[in-house]
Write a structure and sequence with these properties.
Elements: H1 13-25, E1 38-43, H2 49-60, E2 64-69, E3 77-78, E4 91-92, H3 93-102, E5 106-110, H4 118-122, H5 125-133, E6 138-140, H6 148-161, E7 168-173, H7 183-193, E8 198-202, H8 211-214, E9 218-220, H9 223-227, E10 232-236, H10 260-263, E11 270-272, H11 285-288, H12 295-315
Parallel strand pairs: 1-2, 1-5, 3-4, 5-6, 7-8, 7-10, 8-9, 10-11
Helix pairs in contact: 1-12, 2-12, 6-7, 6-12
Bound molecules: phosphoric acid mono(formamide)ester.
The site of phosphoric acid mono(formamide)ester has 9 residues, from α2.
C-alpha cells in the first residue's frame, strides 16, 4: 500500500481486520520494520486522539516521529496558485510540500474541509497535493471528506463487540452549535457499506450526505424508528452537504440528542462516537457514562488502526 485515504486503499478488508487483531495481541512484534524510518505528521487542524494514537502506533513500529502544527510556529501557507503573495502568508504549499518530503519517509496529513469551496473540499485539494508533490507515501489523518483511520478503528470496535454476524448499525445525526465537516459520517458510511452489516442513517431533512457515501444504506428520517432493534448507535453531527446550504447549520434541535429514552428502543445497543463529543448536545451524560458506551475502547482502537496502516505502508517502502 502506498497511500491511504479511503477504505479501498486497504485492499481486502477481512485480511486488514485480521492484521489489526494480530497487532492488538502484540503491538511490539514489528519494531524492526520502522527502524531508521521517520514519520512526519502535519496538522492544519487541532487533534487529541489522532495525534497521540498515530504517534504511539509509529513508535510501536520503531519509527521516529516529527509533528508539525502548521498554524502554530510554521510559516502561514498559501494554498492557491496565481495569488500575489503580498499578504500574511510567506510560503506556498507547493514549495512547502516537497521540502517536508525531504525530511521523512511517510507523511500523515490532517486537513479539514474549509467550507469555502465545495469543489475544492470534495476534490480533496490539500491531501491530493501532498500525494502529488511530496514524493512520499501519504495517509489521511482526517481530510476534507473522509476520516479513514477513525472508521477503521470504528470497524475494529464493532467487530469486537458485535453479538450477531450481521448487526444493525445506526448512524444518527445529533445537534451541535457549530458547523462541522462531513468527513466522519461520510467515511463511517463508506466503511459500513464495505461490510455486510445492516446499516441505517438517520438525520433531519436537509442533512442528506453525498449519495456516493450513503451507498446502500437505508435513510430513515424518523430517528426513533431508526433506533428500533439497533445493535450499535453511532452518533455524529455534520453540517449540510446539499446546495445551497453546503456547510450550514440548519438545525440545533435537541430532540435529536441521544438519550436514555431513545436507547431503550434499541436492542441494548452500544453507543459510539469518535470524540470529542459535546455532552447534552450530541449525547446525554447518562448514555455516555452507561455500561453500553464504548467510546473509550473505540478511541483506544485508533492506535491499532494507525499501526495497521503504517505497517502496510512501511512494508511497501
Ligand atoms: N476522533 C478524532 O479524530 O479525534 P481528534 O480530533 O482528537 O484527533
Amino acid at each position: 500500500m502506498r497511500h491511504f485515504t479511503c477504505v479501498q486503499d486497504l485492499g481486502d478488508l477481512k485480511q486488514a481486520l485480521n492484521e489489526a487483531f494480530e497487532i492488538k495481541k502484540d503491538r511490539f512484534q514489528f519494531t524492526e520494520l520502522g527502524k531508521n524510518k521517520t514519520l512526519l505528521m502535519i496538522f492544519f487542524n487541532s487533534s487529541l486522539r489522532t495525534r497521540l494514537s498515530t504517534q504511539k502506533a509509529a513508535m510501536n513500529l520503531g519509527m521516529n516521529t516529527m509533528v508539525l502544527d502548521v498554524n502554530q510556529g510554521a510559516w502561514k501557507l498559501e494554498t492557491e496558485r496565481g495569488v500575489i503573495m503580498d499578504g500574511d502568508k510567506p510560503e506556498h504549499l507547493l514549495e512547502a510540500i516537497p521540502v517536508m518530503g525531504c525530511y521523512c519517509d511517510i507523511i500523515g496529513v490532517r486537513s479539514f474541509a474549509r467550507f469555502e469551496n465545495k469543489e475544492d473540499d470534495y476534490n480533496e485539494k490539500i491531501i491530493s497535493e501532498f500525494i502529488k508533490y511530496s514524493g512520499r507515501p501519504v495517509f489521511s489523518m482526517e481530510a476534507a471528506t473522509r476520516h479513514p483511520l477513525q472508521s477503521f478503528a470504528d470497524l475494529i470496535t464493532i467487530e469486537e463487540y458485535k453479538k450477531t454476524a450481521r448487526p444493525k448499525v445506526v448512524m444518527t445525526w445529533a445537534p451541535h452549535p457549530k458547523s462541522l465537516p462531513q468527513a466522519v459520517p461520510n467515511s463511517f458510511a463508506e466503511w459500513m457499506n464495505a461490510t455486510d452489516y445492516e446499516f441505517v442513517i438517520t438525520h433531519p431533512e436537509g442533512y442528506e450526505l453525498d449519495p456516493k457515501f450513503v451507498g446502500n444504506a437505508r435513510v430513515e428520517y424518523d430517528q426513533k424508528k431508526a433506533f428500533e432493534g439497533a445493535d450499535f448507535i453511532y452518533a455524529k453531527n455534520w453540517a449540510a452537504y446539499t446546495d445551497p446550504n453546503y456547510g450550514q447549520v440548519l438545525s440545533k434541535d435537541r430532540a435529536w440528542t441521544v438519550d436514555t429514552e431513545k436507547m431503550a428502543l434499541t436492542n441494548n445497543a452500544y453507543f459510539m462516537h469518535c470524540l470529542p463529543v459535546r455532552r447534552n448536545m450530541i449525547v446525554t451524560d447518562d448514555v455516555i457514562e452507561s455500561p453500553q458506551s464504548i467510546v473509550i475502547p473505540e478511541a483506544a482502537n485508533r492506535e491499532i488502526s494507525a499501526q495497521t496502516v503504517l505497517k502496510k505502508i512501511l512494508m511497501g517502502l
